[in-house]
Amino acid sequence: DFLFFWGAVFLVTTTLVALLKKENKELTPTKEETKGITDTYKLLFSIIKMPAVLTFCLLILTAKIGFSAADAVTGLKLVEEGVPKEHLALLAVPMVPLQIILPLIISKYTAGPQPLNTFYKAMPFRLLLGLQFAFLVWWTPKVKHEGGFPVYYYAVVLLSYALHQVTLYSMYVAIMAFNAKVSDPLIGGTYMTLLNTVSNLGGNWPSTVALWLVDPLTVKECAGAQEQTCGTAVAAEV
């Protein structure tokens, strides 16, 4: 129902914009950055060939490997240990005001000549929070009882997620500020799109690999079948 409602709102509003918004024809059109798709890709290729850009792309493609398991797997492991999915979803609600306020606060520190300093300073704290998330997964089955989980457990999870959001947004806003600062104004849109795409890819591929590695790296034991191993999916099913 939630998705249906907002899907309908999205369709109605975008349709109204398409029908009712009129272009101002009196303004002279600005010069296009590129003339077509082929020119755009040629331009992107010429940008990415620059040594500084190539080095930067390699850095942001690998910078988030250390956080991938904590970011992608923690929530799934908490659910596996018995934390109700709806309770974890509810914890996202108090995060919304924090997610709105954080970029406003962090942008003050990334507006200077070296926005990546904030990125560097946040990285060790985010790595430490990965260890804290691992402890949280280990601790979860120990506090579970018949009635579910105590209130203090959810308070610890909420605090952990809040601290994680601080480090996450510090790195995110810093990298965006840096991309905006180094992009050539003449081809700003194309330049920023390239850097932001590589930055997003640098966050997504390690998470995908981390999720793929969960099964091979998880130790399983068979309850009630001492001679049966559970090392593979087929053996676990048997």
UniProtKB/TrEMBL annotation:
Q: Per UniProt, which keywords does this protein have?
A: Membrane, Transmembrane, Transmembrane helix
Q: Name one GO biological process term.
A: acetyl-CoA transmembrane transport
Which Pfam families does the annotation name? Acatn (PF13000)
Entry GO CC: membrane
Q: Transmembrane ranges? A: 6-22, 43-67, 87-106, 118-139, 151-175
**InterPro entries per the record?**
AcetylCoA_trans_1-like (IPR024371), AmpG_permease/AT-1 (IPR004752), MFS_trans_sf (IPR036259)
Places the protein is found: Membrane
How does it sit in the bilayer?
A: Multi-pass membrane protein
Q: Provide the primary localization.
A: membrane
Q: Which GO terms describe its molecular function?
A: acetyl-CoA transmembrane transporter activity
Protein name, per record: ACATN protein
> Which species is the source of this protein?
Ceuthmochares aereus
